[in-house]
What does this fold into?
Amino acid sequence: MINPTPQTPNNQQPTTKNQLQLLVIIGFLIIGSLLRLLWTADMEWKGEEQWMFNQAQQIVNGIIPLPLSGIQSSIGIPNPGMGVWCFAAIAKFADDPVSMARGVQLLNIVPMWLFLAFVLWQVGKEQQHTWLWGLAIASVNPLAIILSRKIWIPDLLAPFCFLIFLGHWFRQKFWGSFLWGIAGICSGQVHMGGFFVVIGIFCCTVWHDGRKKILKKTAWMGYILGTSLGSIPLLLWLGEVLPQWQGSRSSILGLLVPKFYSQW
It folds into this structure.
């Protein structure tokens, strides 16, 4: 009796292909990480970067207390102070501008790898392809690389975005909703542009979950508690900047002009 030729399992080829794809994507992330770390001394050092570095150093050295307000925004009022607080935390380990920029680079590299781990952990195999390639493209995006190596408060948003995403994914659990709320409200205090993310995700969640009749499954008490706790510094900041609001009214009214949203 002739033994039949052993058959290759049907799923062996797709498995090999998936492993190769994962290696390629990891390669993209390694390249993106290295590009963020290269030539740190070749950094911008304008007035805004100098102001932020000096403020952070003065806070760490006890010369000034933690400020409620940060650097002036484009609408004529100061940003909330949380962005300066973050740079002050970096300044505990960085006593020169290049070291501080290195800290910003690391804060942008770590979330990329956390996103990779999250996709492999939580996203189904049939959907991972899109997620992983989206992450790979983002990791080597030239503009994203440039904006991951500056002493500039928008460059601090990457860790907060990951925490918002993680909390939102587990929003049906108390801890997830709490994390979604507190990370979201804090991102807007690091840089006011973070509020675009907060409002966008909230509105999309209400629309999506409302259509699927699962809105009540979200642990809203955790979201409310997290948002309320994170809003305490925001309320203190509002108390400080409200007297300046009148002088910036024309800039704030610009939010009502369609041109503002078309530019965004």
